[in-house]
Amino acid sequence: MAATATKGVVEESQDQKEELPIPQPPTHLYGYLGNLPDLDPAFALRSIWRLADLYGPIFKLDLVKRQSVVLSNYELIKEVLSDDRFEKNVTGALQELRPLIKDALFSAYPHEPNWHKAHRTLMPVFGPLGVRKMFPEQLDIASQMILRWDRLGPDNIIDTADDFTRLAFDTIGICAFNYRFNNFYAEHMHKFATQMSESLLEAGKRAGRTGIENNLRIWSAQHLQENIDAMHKLCDDLVAERMANPRPEINDLLNTMLNVADPVTGEKLDVENIRNQMVTFLIAGHETTSGTLAYLFYNLLKNPETLQKAQQEVDQVVGDGPIEVKHMSQLKYVDAAIKETLRMNGPIPAVQRRAKQETLLGGKYKVTPDMGIMINLKGLHNDPTVWGDDAGIFRPERMYDGFPTDAWRPFGVGMRSCIGRAFAEQEMILNVALILQRFQVEMADPSYELAIKSTLTTKPDGFSIKVRRRTGKDAMVGLTGAKTTAASKSSSAAKIEGNSRTRSKMTVLYGSNAGTCKAFAEDLQTNAPEFGFEADIKPLDQATENLPTDQPVVIITASYEGKPPDNAKKFVAWLEANASDISLAKGVKYATFGQLISTHIASFARTNGILGVGNSEWAQTYHKVPKLIDNLLTAGGASPICKPAFADVKQDCTGEWEEFSEHFWQTMQETGQAGSHEQKSELRAQVTKHDMPALLGGQEMSYGIIKSCRSLGGQGVGPEKRELEVALPEGTTYSTGDYLVVQPLNNPDTVRRVLARFDLHSDDLISISGTRKAYLQPSAGRSSIEAAVFFFQRVELSGPATVRQLEGLQNYAASEADKARLQELAQDHPKQVLGKNYSLLEILEDISSLQPPLSVFIDSLKPLTPRQYSISSSPLHSANHKPSAKPEGGHDTYSATISYDVHSAPARSGGSRIFNGVCSSFMANLKPGNKIHCFVRRTNADFRLPKDPKTPIIMIAAGTGLAPMRGFVQERTALAEAQGAQALGPAVLYFGCRDFEKDYIYREELAQAETLGAVSMRPTFSKRAPEGEGPQYAYTHERIWAERKEVVGLFKDQGAKIFLCGSASKLAKSTADVLVRIMMEDTGKSKEEALEWLERIREGRYVTDVFD
């Protein structure tokens, strides 16, 4: 049973000395467990962050053994930074490390004299001059990592946590006590590093356990002591060896600690304290630096325009010559990027303080010396009153803007701040410069989203990169002996010997999130040998600074709401950063084909064709990326060889691709760049009867588990609306407004029809060869795939047939009448095929004489792509958060809901067939306990609730477009329950329904939220409204117009932010129209001026998530 929670921060009293209670979450088990169950034992800080979001800038936790007050904003934190009233509090995991490092700099209690002696002795060594002297040793270790990466090549996957840990560990070893751990020359980390890692982990666990439990864990305590003894022995041996064989010529910390006396007491550090300091340097130095570097490259790669700026600065300051210590102070943007990373993702997540005597924080919250005070650095470093509303965005330039000194504290507080700050900053700038000077860096998995792991510090979990040496860079660039001139490029055309004749090489570069563009790239790769080419396909980012000049390059990329795909961001940023370079693409000839949502570009040294793919509903960003690339290539000296062509995924995307590829190869032949047409290597599909059960596979942690599923209504007035609640994999989190991406299975009835049409049994095995399309290949280690598994999991079966497919089917028509029917469908394709969603399978069923081989059918199918749904819940709501049930080693788990329409209706193609939406029908048939393959995708950075909950919001939605708005309301409800409604600004929700009884989804929940002050509901009903409840409106735009004075007041006077989710052609258009009308009436502006205003506010204050 939970005790009653203390409400959140209330408005300040006129009497600033009036004492107020500190907000506190409800305790557990009648108070006996305090707030311990609220903390994730494997990652307590994540729980602290969640509680800070709920309870505000100050709250208290009962940790049974002690009380802890958590501070999360600048105004309160700046007060406890004073060393006059407050001091460091050695507690938690740091206290548990005392057996290892005792009274060293990091862990000494404030009253212990050794801290003062060591601090005074070592400060000069860590001053500017002392750190500059360590540059050669830092460069020594950095070069080991750089050369190793270069040697392993561009396909090697680099685990950033592992390699940057090796780097920082080895750097501390050589600079602190001239010891080489040689981690870059061994497969596994040095045993000292392993022992330290285990000790840090165990210290964190011990801090989260009760004293009784720690006493019972005898083996864990024994293993910890064994690790401590081993680490102490190595350090003791190094000290003994140096004392026996002095080496005064060595510039390291060990010589200083052995030979320099404290200027105040005249005493030298004793041998035991020297050992403790050595271990401390390794702990503090390697954990923080390695984590910061990993976070930095994540931020740079997620924001490639910042990567371009950093790389350009390195090129301007250092060039191709050796990196020298003088360059460190000149790399100002690199330094700013590191500092911005420390603000956003500092590896030290909190600082512990305590009051020296009883005092009032903020003049109203009493704290006593026996209370711990935790400075939540994430809260400090994201406080919008200091950093602005864009605090969640990585923007290194903000480090130039100026900010209060106490608002940025990644290196600690007061006299106990990190003594090695200058050392760490020099080490990080050096390594970033070396990496950017030599390499193009890319994510090993472009879709990776930041996951965090925690020990004593935090760092990215599972973040890997790849590096490729930049064109023209010498093998020793940046190091002593480097050449200062770029290596010359090869000018001879690359050739490869084929089976029948010599083939030219071609590179196909793709940018794709959903897989469609990659499938097109594989299609081009498969057909290339017909025209005398051997094609190699790669992600588009690998072409950054690396467009080949000795072979054709085809670029196929997508445009998502005007933004490039994850694996094309670097390439686009590179083009934009060099837009003024008129020779950037000199000699490139290209052709352009475009379509909204995906963008396809073929870019060659001699010939370039661009295919752009997109969705015409996003009018403002329609084909933005392909057109941008087309324009930048032209501006950079490239010459188009044919007119641009663009496709729309709402129409016949595959058909447009087929037309483009045919035209592309024809142009290549006409210009003499492609050989005569060869016989195509046809896809072959061989069927073998299966004689054993199907093999099961799949990774457990890539699946979510269905917690609940329910109907929300809607039947009778439209499609049924349903909710699916998914328990996410352990450790997976999300933010309100994010998406859940679901990989569906095809409808069982559709699969049965395919199997029947080609006389297949579900267990028959299909062996596929003669194609490069990865989605058609069997799993690794297998030569075949079961027929049912293939058609359930691999290919789209329900999409409309393309013109090319219809033309190809004519070869298998048994009569002139059937051939004429196919020609009629092809000629009237938009109406008879696209308009009716007439699939290839349905055509084969309706024209039964058509008997194409199974291989022809398979070769025409696109990959089954995942579907994306807005999450309709908030992780802050208690119903969506489950504390870990494991005493240690587990993580809190979160659930997410998605709200969706079930598409099931008579097929527009006629007959007795029923059209079932692939993913919606798949989800509608799921039951609690089922597993689905899914992952969280982050939303547009602007589609988030304002950081200040008092900022008003206006939400506009219709149907299941309510999903993200329901998440926003859930979050505001949780805040209202924790802090009181006075902590929230106004929130208005315009919600379009058909029938007040049948499809006003979440009605009771929204009414309860309205009672709490979390939202003001403004429903509209297009078919049936409740009687006697005042004015009724059929559509949201009508009600917005009627209430325009309130809307203007919220938006213009109070700074409200508008969110919209729903149909692009209906809701988004009608809302844009009414906002323009309101603007014209309120300001007297013309329609054109009002439209320009609407475009200006789209990024930050009018944010849409539309679909059709």
TrEMBL record:
Pfam families tied to this protein: FAD_binding_1, Flavodoxin_1, NAD_binding_1, p450
Protein's UniProt name: NADPH--cytochrome P450 reductase
Positions of heme binding: 418
Originating species: Carpinus fangiana
InterPro entries: Bifunctional_P450_P450_red, CysJ-like_FAD-binding, Cyt_P450, Cyt_P450_CS, Cyt_P450_E_grp-I, Cyt_P450_sf, FAD-bd_FR_type, Flavodoxin/NO_synth
Segments forming domain Flavodoxin-like: 506-672
SUPFAM superfamilies found in the cross-reference section: Cytochrome P450 (SSF48264), Ferredoxin reductase-like, C-terminal NADP-linked domain (SSF52343), Flavoproteins (SSF52218), Riboflavin synthase domain-like (SSF63380)
Record has NADP as a keyword: yes
All residue ranges annotated as the FAD-binding FR-type domain in the record: 699-946
Residues covered by region (Disordered): 1-24, 872-893
Gene Ontology molecular function: aromatase activity; flavin adenine dinucleotide binding; FMN binding; heme binding; iron ion binding; NADPH-hemoprotein reductase activity
Lineage: Eukaryota, Viridiplantae, Streptophyta, Embryophyta, Tracheophyta
The keyword Coiled coil belongs to this UniProt entry's keyword annotation: no
Source superkingdom: Eukaryota
Keywords: FAD, Flavoprotein, FMN, Heme, Iron, Metal-binding, Monooxygenase, NADP, Oxidoreductase, Transport
One Gene Ontology CC term in the entry: cytosol
Cofactor: heme; FAD; FMN
Family: In the N-terminal section; belongs to the cytochrome P450 family.
Residue ranges of the TM segments: none
